[in-house]
Amino acid sequence: MATFDLDGWVARSGALDLTGIDWAEVPRHPVPPEAVRTLHYMQDIESHTIVYLRSLLATRAVDDPEVSTFLACWLYEETFHGIALARFLEASGHPVPPRPRPHGQESLAQWLEARATALLSRAWSDFCAVHMTWGAINELTTLTGYKRLKAVAAHPVLSELLERIMRDESRHFFFYYRQAEQRLRRPGAAGVARFLVDHFWGPVGTGVGARGELEFMAKYLFAGDEGQAAVRRVDDTIRRLPGFASVQLLEAWLDRHANGGRT
Asked: N or C: at which end does the chain have fewer Cβ atoms within 10 angstroms?
């Protein structure tokens, strides 16, 4: 895999370019209600990025100059994804409602997860191997979700907006994946990372969005042969990482949570 050009990416990093997006055209095309519901979920999760970063600031991730530089730009770009999705929803007549609980208010589960992450980071010098692996999985599933939404919603303005967001997400995924590939080769790193992914990983937004919304979105985006093929591509890509050849990820999660318990 090619080397990630961090300096070049930082130089080009910025707010999502919305030049030429015809917002007045949005209401002239139907947006399926399932797509509206999915967009509300995705917008909420994109806007939640700063809370993930807050947890990472208490870990070794910020001690690595490459990782900390990347995270600063990553947060900036992800924030504008949330703003752009909110603007589309507003233009379509489905504005983002007030969130029942502000992003700054953590649930007990989120608080415990953040503290456990900080403790793991202090105890294990290769913590970034887990962070980069987790990030690679989450960025790839997010990117795949956007691709599937573009296909199933079939809205011309949304398609153009998602294409621009996906270009950012592709670069984010490349950084995480390249870093994970390198760090998992260190002695013991792959074993610990694999154990944590096997026992604690869930799709982006697990425990954050309203109950049932993640499962609904997964069914909507990944139904049918094309959806299942997209799921398998995610898993096959992550299986190329050191120590992850037999990992069960998105397809297994869907079988447990979104496909009626089929295994």
From this structure: C
Maximum Cα interatomic distance, the chain, rounded to a whole number of Å? 57
- The answer to whether residues 117 and 55 touch, using CB atoms and an 8 Å cutoff, is yes
| Phi, psi dihedrals of residue 194, rounded to the nearest 5° | -65, -45
User: What region does 146 belong to: left with phi over 0, alpha with psi -120 to 50, or beta?
Assistant: alpha
What gap in Å lies between CA 39 and CA 89, rounded to an integer? 8
Dihedral sign for Cα 69, 75, 78, 84, please: negative
For the stretch 134-189, pLDDT in tens is 999 999 999 999 999 999 999 999 999 999 999 999 999 999 999 999 999 998 99
Q: Is-contact 59 105, C-beta < 8 A? A: no
Confirm if 173 and 238 have CB atoms less than 8 A apart: no
Q: What angle do CA 34, 35, 37 make, to 5 degrees?
A: 65
Burial environment of residue 157 by CB neighbours within 10 A (0 to 12, 13 to 18, 19 or more): buried
Tell which residue, 203, 103, 92, has the closest CA to residue 143: 203
CB 111 within 8 A of CB 208: no
pLDDT in tens, 57-108: 666 667 788 888 888 888 899 999 999 999 999 999 999 987 665 555 555 5
Residue 159: name the closest of 45, 12, 35 by CA.
Answer: 35
